[in-house]
Amino acid sequence: MTKQERAARTRDALIKSAAREFDEHGYALAKLSTISSGAGVSPGALHFHFENKAAIAAAVEGEASTALRRTCRIVYRHRSNALQNLADTSHALARLLREDVVARAGFRLSCSHGCRTDLNLRQEWQSCVLQRLAEAADEGLLATGIGSQQDLARTIVAATVGLEALCRDNPEWLSPGTVTGLWRTLLPMLTDPGTLAGLEPAGSPAATPRARVPVG
Amino acid sequence: MTKQERAARTRDALIKSAAREFDEHGYALAKLSTISSGAGVSPGALHFHFENKAAIAAAVEGEASTALRRTCRIVYRHRSNALQNLADTSHALARLLREDVVARAGFRLSCSHGCRTDLNLRQEWQSCVLQRLAEAADEGLLATGIGSQQDLARTIVAATVGLEALCRDNPEWLSPGTVTGLWRTLLPMLTDPGTLAGLEPAGSPAATPRARVPVG
């Protein structure tokens, strides 16, 4: 392993350890000494990579943003229509937030007040919802007589942001079952029964592959 | 003013000042010196009333819980039916959270992790939603063919909790207009068009009196 490779590996370990510490105690109470020992390095090694707590938090946010945006792009590639893509994207993001501590901690840091960078990942999600609804309107998927697109977008944003907030107390709120239940409730208010029949509230298998259950 | 009255007044001023400090900086970063000076008293006077930061946070939570529960009871007294009462209650609570810093800070303290008391006001709201939906079912208000009551309750809880979370960045999310938009979206998915025609997404005037606009 070259010197550069070792440095990159240490930096990654510090980011992951910091994410665990921020996830558990929040930014204000996170301790640099716990972060360095969690990464198996000295406080000096931490300071070689990051000037202070704000710098390491910015790095966690940056990694989270990369992972969350990449997830959205991958799901978009398997896009069948805008409404299914919206449900699929929420499932994929929920899974990432459940399983990846860096994505979860970075997302929360970027939304917390007194925040240190210009990132606001909740704001990006809101733009994504608005964009998909506009596409759904273009694709003729939205039922006639439904409320204003702005009301619908705000309801979807509020409900999904609410799942993430509630999940901090109880991870069940971001489980596949709860996210599916949300779309079972919301999709019928967005589209007519004909379109609804072709939509999968649990996410389309192509866009959100699940572990295969062996048969027999 | 008797000695007791003065003490009660100082205690109230400290709770309000603490709420402002928690609201602005969060529990971890809140400073006792700012709380005492904000109440116009010495640090010694603060410590006469409250042993430490946890004790004053618990007092803020207690006051918030009293105000939020009282609001729910008052709205319940003007109850026409369970669905209207659910919308009315959310409007009244949103107004309290917007206008009363003690209710807002106490609500947030009770939901934040690492929390110090047994109160969880978000959990109480969740119970209230479940209760109203069960009543709506008893009253024959829920449309046939809608999703499971559990899915509906979770969607309403997630959307309303989401509004409160989003409001931390932008108060517009708890404005009467946004809360009304939420119910314009959610009510049609809960009930049939006949019942819907009698419901007021902006809240019924009896239960959520608004400032009168002078005419002419």
From TrEMBL, chains A, B:
Keywords: DNA-binding, Transcription, Transcription regulation. Residues 197-216 are annotated as: Disordered. Pfam families: TetR_N. It comes from the Bacteria. InterPro entries: ArpA-like, Homeodomain-like_sf, HTH-type_TetR-like_transc_reg, HTH_TetR, Tet_transcr_reg_TetR-rel_C_sf. Residues 31-50 bind DNA. Residues 8-68 form the HTH tetR-type domain. This is TetR family transcriptional regulator. It comes from Streptomyces zaomyceticus.
